[in-house]
Write a structure and sequence with these properties.
globular; Aminopeptidase; Acyl_CoA_acyltransferase; 177 residues; alpha+beta; seven-stranded mixed beta sheet
Length: 177
């Protein structure tokens, strides 16, 4: 599907062979405050999650895609549509890129592919993202694609440095260039 293939990466569904990568990302304690995770995930739980990922977005209300390099087929990260709301035609967007693949344009390419897929294939009206105020890389990424800051949740997320504000960003389809 051309919606999910870019110049250097492609997005694909989760496969059982992704378990080691998923296990490493989901159990990375440095990311837990973003996903509101409170305890480690077992392989068994994540294997069941991969198995249930066969459901379509209308049933599961989410879609997790693996970001892969075209040339090497290396797994680079994940990009998600979550809290899918078909009545109001919107979904949240989440993205995580493995440390060794950051600052290479992979997140930008993945987000661009996901936006195109969401608006042109799923016919969503809007996408949104929730980003901690100190996550400048993510704020810059979403802003680059036209997401606008529409709200602030004060002292919303607890981190090791204390409570952090969370920025609410939205991209309305007709504002997308």
């Amino acid at each position: 599907m051309t919606y999910l293939k870019g110049k250097s990466i492609f997005l694909r569904a989760l496969e059982p062979s992704d378990i080691d990568f998923l296990f490493a990302v989901e159990n990375d304690v440095s990311l837990w405050h973003i996903s509101q995770t409170m305890q480690p995930f077992s392989r068994h739980i994540l294997e069941a999650y991969i198995e249930s990922a066969k459901s379509d977005i209308y049933e599961a209300k989410q879609l997790r895609l693996v970001i892969c390099e075209i040339v090497s087929n290396n797994l680079c990260g994940f990009i998600d549509l979550y809290d899918f709301d078909p009545r109001n035609n919107r979904a949240g967007v989440g993205i995580v890129v493995a440390e060794s693949f950051r600052k290479k344009g992979i997140a930008s390419e993945a987000l661009e592919l996901l936006i195109t897929y969401a608006f042109e294939f799923l016919n969503l009206f809007q996408l949104y993202a929730c980003v901690e105020e100190n996550n400048q890389a993510s704020l810059t990424l979403f802003s680059k694609f036209g997401f606008e800051k529409t709200g602030v949740r004060k002292q919303w997320n607890w981190t090791t440095t204390g409570f952090q504000d969370e920025i609410f960003l939205q991209l309305i389809q007709h504002n997308h260039v």
